[in-house]
Amino acid sequence: MELKKIRIVACPVCKKMVSYENNPYRPFCSRGCKGVDLIHWSDESYKIAKEEHDDDSGAGHHGQ
Ligand SMILES: [Zn+2]
User: Fold this and answer.
1) What total number of domains does the chain contain?
2) If DSSP codes are grouped into helix, strand and coil, which group holds residue 10?
3) How high is the pLDDT of residue 37?
4) What does the pLDDT read at residue 54?
5) From the CA of 13, how far away is ligand 1's center (Å)?
6) Residue 48 placed within a domain
7) How far is the CA of 52 from the centre of ligand 1 (A)?
8) What's the 15 CA to ligand 1 centre distance in angstroms?
9) How many angstroms separate the alpha carbon of residue 57 from the centre of ligand 1?
10) pLDDT of 14-57, one tens digit each?
11) Which of 42, 45, 55, 63 is the most exposed place for a label (fewest CB within 10 A)?
């Protein structure tokens, strides 16, 4: 009989201990903390990407 290995990791944002397995936001504890981290590291590239797509989302449905 084997025990399932459950890894516990500390959320990089709030340092809360969370299970790595069965956690869609790993290694974070929640969607909130994952969002905080994303803003941190992709702020610059996100802005650039948004500008590129700005024209597209503004014009909208050209198909009709
Ligand atoms: Zn957290």
Assistant:
1) 1
2) strand
3) 67
4) 64
5) 5
6) yes
7) 31
8) 6
9) 32
10) 999 999 988 999 989 998 888 876 666 555 665 656 666 666 65
11) 63
> What are the tens digits of pLDDT across the range 3-14?
777 889 999 989
CATH of the domain at 49: 3.30.50.10
Q: What is the pTM of this model?
A: 0.49
* CA gap 29, 10 in Å, rounded: 8
**Ligand 1 midpoint to CA 11 (Å):** 5
CA 32-43-31 angle, 5° bins: 10
Q: How far apart are CA 55 and CA 59, in angstroms?
A: 6
Res. 59: pLDDT tops 60: no
Question: Any bridge partners for residue 17, and if so which?
Answer: 10
Using the mean position of ligand 1's atoms as its centre, give its distance from the Cα of residue 12 in Å: 7
